[in-house]
């Protein structure tokens, strides 16, 4: 005996594959972003820490070279705000909401009240709403 396939089974299978494919792309992009951030961190700070240990052991590192490596690490810290918007769409959207230079022309500016309500993890309360205060 053969049991006929229900027509909804192939659609459910393709939907589940599409869902898994979408999440695997997001995971791959998140891994790539994290890899770039960590790679840049190690490239910038590892020479500083190796030189710092070398300086502690033998004292043979010139002060100018040590300063250059310190500033290389500082440059890494300035690169993070550039890297995040390049690779993370959610970060870019969040920054666009709050920074006037990054906001699109059609997006309204969030009000202080909406920000405080959003951050308080609660909805409007009758006793503390703006209408009752005024």
UniProtKB/TrEMBL annotation:
<dbReference type="GO" id="GO:0004930">
    <property type="term" value="F:G protein-coupled receptor activity"/>
</dbReference>
<keyword id="KW-0472">Membrane</keyword>
<feature type="transmembrane region" description="Helical">
    <location>
        <begin position="68"/>
        <end position="87"/>
    </location>
</feature>
<dbReference type="GO" id="GO:0071880">
    <property type="term" value="P:adenylate cyclase-activating adrenergic receptor signaling pathway"/>
</dbReference>
<dbReference type="InterPro" id="IPR000276">
    <property type="entry name" value="GPCR_Rhodpsn"/>
</dbReference>
<dbReference type="GO" id="GO:0043410">
    <property type="term" value="P:positive regulation of MAPK cascade"/>
</dbReference>
<protein>
    <submittedName>
        <fullName>5HT6R protein</fullName>
    </submittedName>
</protein>
<feature type="region of interest" description="Disordered">
    <location>
        <begin position="113"/>
        <end position="134"/>
    </location>
</feature>
<keyword id="KW-1133">Transmembrane helix</keyword>
<keyword id="KW-0297">G-protein coupled receptor</keyword>
<dbReference type="Pfam" id="PF00001">
    <property type="entry name" value="7tm_1"/>
</dbReference>
<dbReference type="InterPro" id="IPR017452">
    <property type="entry name" value="GPCR_Rhodpsn_7TM"/>
</dbReference>
<keyword id="KW-1003">Cell membrane</keyword>
<keyword id="KW-0812">Transmembrane</keyword>
<feature type="transmembrane region" description="Helical">
    <location>
        <begin position="27"/>
        <end position="48"/>
    </location>
</feature>
<keyword id="KW-0807">Transducer</keyword>
<dbReference type="GO" id="GO:0005886">
    <property type="term" value="C:plasma membrane"/>
</dbReference>
<feature type="domain" description="G-protein coupled receptors family 1 profile">
    <location>
        <begin position="1"/>
        <end position="84"/>
    </location>
</feature>
<keyword id="KW-0675">Receptor</keyword>
């Amino acid at each position: 005996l053969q049991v006929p396939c229900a027509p909804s089974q192939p659609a459910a299978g393709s939907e589940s594959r599409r869902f898994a494919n979408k999440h695997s792309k997001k995971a791959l992009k998140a891994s790539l972003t994290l890899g770039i951030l960590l790679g840049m961190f190690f490239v910038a700070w590892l020479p500083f820490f190796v030189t710092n240990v070398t300086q502690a052991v033998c004292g043979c590192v010139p002060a100018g070279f040590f300063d250059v490596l310190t500033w290389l690490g500082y440059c890494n810290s300035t690169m993070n705000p550039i890297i995040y918007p390049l690779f993370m769409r959610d970060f870019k959207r969040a920054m666009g909401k709050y920074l006037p230079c990054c906001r699109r022309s059609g997006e309204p500016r969030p009000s202080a009240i909406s920000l405080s309500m959003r951050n308080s993890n609660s909805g409007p309360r009758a006793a503390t709403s703006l209408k009752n205060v005024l």
